[in-house]
């Protein structure tokens, strides 16, 4: 009986320790691609904030620096991630009754091109879209930067995960 309990305890202990210490934070960035370049995103939307391209690039750079073992460089990188903002707009989203608060939605569409020099079959060319809602009673110029930061972080996460799936 003692052997059965000992074996059971040992099995539980092994599973607990091995599962509790496992951590996965990295994607399958190609080994032949130790450097990455993410310049500011270009803006071709009719209505835009001049800082949104910087916010997007910075959020994606931070994401890669947190989770990957790649060096961020400005030129001649093994991976080049380029983005272009093709739509950026504010829309009224809800009007439920005279007693409710109306919200606006700030939305963005980004066209992304990620090029791996040594593995072109893994390149990505895709559009990403996201939005954030805010109270319509707020002055947009007062909340613009915070909304852009939220949008940038959301898009950076989506882009990063898309790259992780593809790579």
Describe this structure in words.
The protein has 167 residues and is α/β, with parallel strands linked by helices. Helices cover 38% and strands 29% of the residues. Strands 1, 2, 3, 4, 5 and 6 form a six-stranded mixed β-sheet that branches. Strand 4 and strand 5 form a beta hairpin. Helix 2 crosses helix 3 (140-166).
Radius of gyration over all CA atoms, rounded: 22 Å
Largest sheet: 6 strands, mixed
Structural class: alpha/beta
Sketch the topology as an H/E string, one letter per element.
Answer: HEEHEEEEH
Please tally the helical runs, counting DSSP H or I stretches of 4 or more residues. Answer: 3
Runs in which pLDDT lies below 50 for 5 or more consecutive residues are 13-25
How would you concisely characterize the structure shown here?
By secondary structure, the protein is of the alpha/beta class. 38% of the residues lie in helices and 29% in strands.
């Amino acid at each position: 009986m003692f052997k059965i309990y000992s074996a059971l305890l040992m099995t539980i202990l092994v599973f607990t320790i091995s599962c509790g210490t496992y951590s996965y934070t990295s994607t399958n960035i190609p080994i032949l691609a130790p450097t990455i370049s993410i310049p500011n995103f270009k803006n071709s939307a009719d209505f835009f904030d001049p800082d949104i391209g910087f916010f997007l690039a910075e959020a994606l750079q931070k994401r890669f620096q947190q989770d990957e073992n790649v060096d961020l460089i400005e030129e001649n990188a093994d991976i080049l991630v380029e983005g272009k903002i093709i739509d950026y707009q504010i829309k009224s989203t809800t009007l439920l009754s005279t007693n409710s608060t109306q919200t606006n939605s700030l939305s963005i569409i980004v066209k992304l091109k990620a090029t791996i020099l040594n593995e072109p079959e893994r390149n990505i060319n895709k559009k990403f879209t996201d939005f954030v809602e805010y109270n319509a009673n707020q002055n947009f110029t007062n909340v613009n930067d915070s909304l852009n930061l939220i949008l940038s972080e959301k898009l950076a996460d989506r882009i990063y995960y898309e790259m992780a799936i593809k790579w």
